Amino acid sequence: MRRGAFGFTVRVHRPYHLEKKIQGFTVGGKFWKEVSSVYANVARTMVKLAREAAPEFTGELKRSIRADVDKSGYSSEIAFVAEAPYAAAVEEGSKPHATVSKRVAIWAEAKGYLPWVMYRTIRLLGTRKHPFFYQARDIGADKMLRRLGAVLNGYMRG
After folding, report:
1. Contact 123, 148 (CB under 8 A)
2. Cα distances (Å, whole numbers) of residue 42 to 28, 30, 100
3. What pLDDT score was predicted for residue 141?
4. Of 107, 127, 105, nearest to 116 (Cα)?
5. In what order do the strands lie in the sheet with 75-82?
6. Are 108 and 115 in contact (CB under 8 A)?
7. Contact of 90 with 55, CB cutoff 8 Å
8. Which residues pair with 79 in a beta bridge?
9. pTM to 2 decimals?
10. Residues 6, 88: contact at Cβ < 8 Å?
C-alpha cells in the first residue's frame, strides 16, 4: 500500500496440513484456484461498491479506489485501498483543524460558498464523515465468507 493511502489488507494463509489433507482428498490445486477466483470476484465487487458510494466532485477519489489480489505461495491477500490523499478524511470525517487547501477553495466556489467561510467552518467544526469504504468492505467480507463456504461445502460433499 502506497504511503498516505487509506485502506486495509485481508490475508489468508493456507496451512500446510490443510493443503496436504485436501490434496489427499484428490482435490489438490483445483480447490485453491476456486478460492483465488472467489477472492478476485469479491475484490471487484468491493471496488464497485466503494466507487458507487464515494462522493464525487472531480472523480479523483473514485478513480483512486482499487483492489489488488496477490496469490503467492501459501497465502492469498486482497489489498483494498483508496489512494486519494483526502480519502480518510472523507470516510471518517475530521476533527476541527486549520486549512487553506486549494482543493477546499475550488470545492467551496463550485458549491457557491465563500472559501473563507469553509476554512472557518472546518477550523471550528471539522468535516462530516461520508462512509463509502468500510461499507463496501463489510458487504465484500460477507460475500467472501458465503462464497468460500459454498466452495468448501462443494468439495466436502463431493
Report:
1. no
2. 22, 19, 39
3. 80
4. 105
5. 6-13, 75-82, 65-72
6. yes
7. yes
8. 9, 68
9. 0.71
10. yes
**55-109 pLDDT tens trace:** 888 888 899 988 887 766 556 677 888 888 888 888 888 899 888 888 889 988 9
Angle at 28 between CA 20 and CA 31, to 5 degrees: 115
Residue 157 region, left (φ>0) first, then alpha (ψ -120 to 50), else beta? alpha
- Tally the residues of the chain: 158
The string of pLDDT tens digits covering residues 31-44 is: 777 777 887 888 88
> Cβ(69)–Cβ(43) under 8 Å?
yes
Residue 6, H or E segment: strand 6-13
Q: Cβ(68)–Cβ(119) under 8 Å?
A: no
With vertex at residue 40, the alpha carbon angle to CA 158 and CA 5, rounded to the nearest 5 degrees, is 145
